[in-house]
Amino acid sequence: MLKLYGGARERASIVQWYLEELEVPYEFVLLDLQAGEQRQPEFLGINPMGKVPGIVDGDFNRNCSRSWW
What we know:
Elements lengths: L1 E5 L5 H10 L4 E5 L10 H4 L9 E4 L2 E3 L7
Parallel strand pairs: 1-2
Antiparallel strand pairs: 1-3, 3-4
């Protein structure tokens, strides 16, 4: 299943909207950006620059929402 990583009130909400409109099943992983969760090793494996949103689908990951659509 597709995993979308993002923060509250963040650009990930636009991606969520697209996924909902396309009826794509996904799991949203909420990151606490103020606590710096986007800079933890687990997320840096998805996006080495620590930017959100991030998306993972199996072995494929994408870290810039502008390049997704």
